[in-house]
Amino acid sequence: MKQALRQLLGDFLSAILFLAVYALSGNVFAAAGLAVTAALAQFTRLKLSGHRIEPMQWMSLGLVVVLGGATMLTQSPRFMMVKPTIVHLAIAAVMLRRGWMLRYLPNIVVQRVPESTIVAAGCMWAALLAALGLANLVIALRFDFTTWAWFISVGSVGSKLALFALQYGVFRAIARQRIAPSTISGPGELVSTR
């Protein structure tokens, strides 16, 4: 879990920096420049530490450099504002692969929760990210920066946290329900779980 959150933060670090610097200074050139610099620094750190760079990380770097460059050339923040759309849609496409979630779940969940439920949860994540990507595109192109900043920092993050909490609750309830009967060995006999 901690690793997944760290990777997610790393993926969105340039967008967070862009949002913060542009909101505080109004300087689109400085905000985009810092976002590009941060993305390049992240990659340099990964390369120097010998980590394998995943295809999605390469895509993210390419988007930051290209869209950040377009933002600096045109002095329009809209290019950087569209980046989350591309990332969300790309991740949603990956999440359409059946069973993608299995490798991220603890063994107790994989053993106790039906695969069909896990696959359905994976499809829900794909649908959420696709919806967020499309909503971000509309907001980035039609609304002002403040509206976009609210959506990307509160709406987008909040909806992901809500789905995570729902999934956690459902998986936990199913796992607990399936564990409870396994503590009974015979008629009326309880097996110690210690």
Largest sheet: 2 strands, antiparallel
- Spans where pLDDT lies below 50 across 5 or more residues: 190-194
> What is the H-and-E element order?
HHHHHHHEE
Structural class: mainly alpha
Helix content range? over 70%
The termini sit apart by 26 Å
Strand elements, count? 2
Which whole number gives the mean pLDDT? 87
What is the strand content?
under 5%
Give the overall shape, derived from the CA principal axes: elongated
Estimate nothing, just give the exact number of structural domains: 1
Radius of gyration over C-alpha positions, nearest whole angstrom: 21 Å
General description of the model:
- This protein has 194 residues and is mainly alpha-helical.
- It has one domain (2-180).
- The chain has seven helices and two strands; from the N terminus they run αααααααββ.
- The protein has helices at 2-25, 28-48, 55-74, 78-95, 107-112, 115-142, 145-179; strands at residues 184-186, 189-190.
- It has a two-stranded antiparallel sheet with strand order 1-2.
- Helix 1 runs antiparallel to helix 2 and helix 3 (55-74) runs antiparallel to helix 4 (78-95).
- The longest helix has 35 residues, at 145-179.
- The protein is elongated.
- Residues 190-194 have low confidence and may be disordered.
